[in-house]
Amino acid sequence: MTAQTEALDGEILGPEGEDEMRVRRDFWATVKRAARQVPMMEDVVAAYYATLDPETPLRVRAVLVGALAYFVMPFDAIPDMLAVVGFSDDVTVLTGAIAMVIGHIKDRHRAAAKKALEEQG
User: What is the Cα–Cα distance from 44 to 73, expressed in whole angstroms?
Assistant: First the structure.
């Protein structure tokens, strides 16, 4: 983990949040699996970093955690295992959530996302 990502590695919604634990546990594996199917992956990762940032308002973090939890769940409206269309519902949910809170996704979140995705290769 880089210094940039360590600085943003805070609590999402507190230690008891089931969605938070699911997102933390499964996020990067889902990013790798979805990288070719989700054209806005840098925005998704920036949203993840916004959830980790203690300066992000709780209501914004809640919106983003809900969308990210949906993203990491393998079985949802359209199962993610289906080729081509598997992540289409996830993209719709993520696009809506990010659009709602776009002003709270800061340049530092985007920079951390870009760097993390470059490191993922």
Answer: 15
Question: What confidence tens digit (pLDDT) does each residue in 70-104 have?
Answer: 999 876 555 545 545 567 888 899 999 999 999 99
How wide is the angle at C-alpha 85 spanned by C-alphas 84 and 88, nearest 5°? 125
Which tokens is 39 given?
A: 């054209």
Structure tokens at 92: 């719709």
* Rounded-to-integer distance, Cα 44 and Cα 120, Å: 14
In contact, 5 and 76? CB cutoff 8 Å: no
Using the predicted structure, report yes or no on whether residue 68 has a pLDDT greater than 90: yes
- Residue spans of the domains in the chain: they are 3-120
Report the distance separating Cα 4 and Cα 115, nearest Å.
9
Residue 49, exposed/middle/buried by CB under 10 A (0-12, 13-18, 19+)? buried
